Amino acid sequence: MYPIPPNATRIRYLESTGTQYVDTGVPNGEPFTVFLDFSIDASAATNDSLFGSFVSSSRRMIYVTALANGKKRLQLSHGGSENNFAVGDLVAGTRHTVRVRQSGSFEFQVDGGAVGTRDFGNDLAEQSGVTLWLFNRNGNPIPCPMRLYSATIRNANDVLVRDYQPVRKNAVGYLFDRVSGTLFGNAGTGDFVLGPDTFSQGVVPTRMMAMGVRKKEALGSVAFSGNWDSCLTHSGGTDAVPTAFTFSAWVKTASTPTKGAFVKIGRKQTYPGGVVQNGSGVGVGFGSSRFDPTYTGSNLVALAESIAWKNSSAQSGIDAWHHWTFTVDNLSFAAYKDGLSVYTMTFSNLYRFAPCDISMGGCRGGNASGDSNRFLACNMTRCAMWNRALSASEVAQDYADRKKSPTITNGLQHFWPMSNAKNYLKDEVGSATLTAGVGGVTISTDTPFA
Question: Going by C-beta distance under 8 Å and a sequence separation of 6 or more, which residues neighbour residue 154?
């Protein structure tokens, strides 16, 4: 990933007044996944397009529809008006997220919730020279007055091809693509409106937030080899696994397929008679039907220590950073990838013994046959934990916060920037500072952030 150029400044958002747009250069006919973090202006009208292209009967675009009573919705169009469908009420001036995945059919998510799937058959032919636009649609331009906070585009193999961050050079706004290191400027008329500057790269703010949390940014990551190395904290001898909690982290797996847990909330347990079997709490990692050593794979797997393995179809990604969040509310479990819901289920039981450990990078599993190596080869950064289950919109907001200290402070118990600073394992909110386990850990400059 390319850092923001030294002559550019990161800004909060880039705003189009209705005449500015960006040509992404991505061909419109290829399967893609697009994610937008945005807000629309109150003046947005019917057919104003956030993203896409329009070529005769082959349409690939997300646009706004004006409804009665001042409401607005997103609308998705492909292959003609018969394939239009409108979903997701929007509030002008409020940040929303949308994810659209095109691969033979469309999967459409707004603010982290699945709101529609539509099969458009084989109408995926590429029109020569036609590319996807942001803030507008190619082929029949109808730009949308909106603010864009970030945007990503992935190809059919889930490889990141565009990772846009708003920047300015003096008083001119651009979208900087961290994948190619390219500045994408305004292809329309007039000038983008610039959002306020954010913190410069490499600067760690230390001003106090209202709740007393120090503002820290994740500037690096902690690398785990997958060979019995982890970070661990003991929450105390009287604290059991909480009834409700949320854990979030940026995770990059070293390879796929893989195996191992990137976090365990709970611990291996010794039962009466000295038998070590299973344990308490919840572990989350990647594998096939399990994340034990012989179960290699790329699926997100949850372990409820009751004992029950839960295997999802959510993928770890190929040598790529992703923001992973999971929530537990009594026996309800939900997982999110990059701010969007990917898996929900209900445990039949869940042991919540004390003490409760927090282990990152892996954990030891146990049964009557001995220890099991559940360690994951990965990098982790910006890890946080709340004492309640966050809502889908709060998870989306936490993803949008990226490297910053969490802005969702209600119930925030722990925040580990896991940066390349001196106290890289320090808990900036609570007292659960991590210690390196067997094998130690490696501090890395690899980061998902510009």
Answer: 32, 33, 34, 160, 161
**What are the tens digits of pLDDT across the range 247-269?**
999 999 877 678 888 999 987 65
- The total of other beta-carbon atoms located within 10 Å of residue 344's CB is 12
Collapse the DSSP code of 396 into the 3-class scheme (helix H, G, I; strand E, B; otherwise coil) and give the result: helix
Q: Taking a C-beta distance cutoff of 8 angstroms, is the pair 182, 175 a contact?
A: no
- pLDDT tens-place string over residues 138-195: 777 888 899 998 888 888 777 889 989 899 999 999 999 988 999 999 999 999 999 8
Q: Using the predicted structure, report yes or no on whether residue 123 has a pLDDT greater than 50.
A: no
The whole-angstrom separation of Cα 283 and Cα 279 is: 10
User: Cα–Cα distance between 120 and 138 in angstroms, integer?
Assistant: 20
Domains, the chain, in order of start with CATH, read 9-194 (2.60.120.200), 221-444 (2.60.120.200)
Closest to 150 measured CA to CA, from 78, 198, 215, 222: 198
| Cβ atoms of residues 222 and 382 within 8 Å | no
